[in-house]
Request: fold
Amino acid sequence: MQLEGWGRYPRVDAELIEPATAQALIKLLDESKEQSTLIARGAGRSYGDSSLNAQVLSSRFLDSFSSFHEESAKIRCHSGVTIDELLKVSIPKGLFPAVVPGTKQVSIGGAIAADIHGKNHHRDGSFCDHVESLTLALADGEIKTCSAKKNKELFHASCGGMGLTGVILDATLVLEKVPSVFIRSQAIATHNLAHTIEQLETLNDNKFVVAWIDCLARGEALGRGIVHTGEYAEDAPMEYVRRWGPSVPFSTPSLMLNRYSMSWFNNLYYWLYNRPSNVDLDSYDSFFFPLDSIKHWNRLYGRKGFLQYQFLLPEDSAQQGMQAVLERVADAGKGSFLAVLKKFGAANENLLSFPGPGLTLTLDFKYESSLFPLLEELDEVVIDHGGRHYLAKDARLSAETFKAGYPNWPRFKAVKDKVDPQQRFSSLQSQRIGLTSAAEDKPA
Ligand SMILES: Cc1cc2nc3c(=O)[nH]c(=O)nc-3n(C[C@H](O)[C@H](O)[C@H](O)COP(=O)(O)OP(=O)(O)OC[C@H]3O[C@@H](n4cnc5c(N)ncnc54)[C@H](O)[C@@H]3O)c2cc1C
Reply:
């Protein structure tokens, strides 16, 4: 079958194996030791080729809960459970995951493997900072439980390890007690990049802070945007009735996405929020997961798909580097509907986790061959400013660029080689960025 990530680039022929239980998955690993490489896949919401290979092992049917302890806010579930499914169980108890991404359609296994971040990284860290322990099936079918105390090295390699150490079978998560499932939010318009960054810093005490950037604005207005902040509302209900939104039934012609339509959209968004009083009460769905309201929105980018480009720049070079990136994007006229700027907090001990102190910017670009030279130029800017790229969004980074951004990669590789000497767990991405060898070079 043809398999792809959320960006729909690249698209590859793959065999999708969907074990019905954790036991079946372990048996399969044990019995197929001599066979080709494979990679785990959760909900397929990473954008590029992190969960692609000729053989893909799906966690789709590992979707049950094992225990829920309300007092300690701990829940144990299998790795194929999605955040959406978790919310259905946790909200009635007044509990919410401590970190959620921009879609609730990700699996717990995928959230751990990418050590995902949310709008509250500066306050609460990333997803794996709230994982008490996890169970991993290694390449030979052996099961290991690990945590920040037990099998510590394996834990810090697997959290953010993009599925390369083994298949996460289940995890115990520590949830957060919340007063309601509504967010009191505020939107503040900014005039340019310096003003946007200043507002992100000033508002950093809020629980949730993120900025949208008009990436087609130029000159004096370069980097203008809307900073959104939020706190859980104390005086709102614990329940909320979900509404179903529209769906994009098929790929729209990508010609509709051009410099003019993007510029129109960016101007409209800025204009909508550029008013004096901008305080709202948002449901958790509209605050955290606005894109989920349009099913299959990735089809809007046309049949060839799109690439998401997310990078991090350290604090001292962030403003200068962001300015250089935004200038190049505006000059190329290859704007993005969704340009999101966020200030991260401290890094954790996970060897390949993306977040660290500094600013991260996310840009979407529709697939076109003329995009690739621009992205290579941006890679150079990011690396020259001491930054790195987010693997969960990547479909094209070179091994050199990846390694320059992740100084801990040799430590990660040492753990990987110890637990998976035959390099059974391998993705198209890990081969491209030099973490595993290509299928034909695999050790005998
Ligand atoms: C609309 C949208 C918004 C997003 N917003 C954010 C955001 O705000 N912050 C953020 O950090 N990310 C964000 N993401 C990215 C997303 O959170 C990550 O890509 C996440 O890893 C997707 O989880 P998944 O279950 O879909 O995993 P997949 O895409 O299926 O796999 C991703 C990686 O996880 C590995 N993996 C999956 N399951 C397992 C398992 N059981 N055991 C071992 N490895 C496994 C795969 O091998 C692969 O390397 C967003 C994605 C979308 C589509």
Summary: The two ends are 27 Å apart (CA to CA). The chain is about 25% helix and 25% strand. The chain has three domains: 2-58+405-441, 65-177, 182-399. The first strand starts at residue 2 and ends at 4.
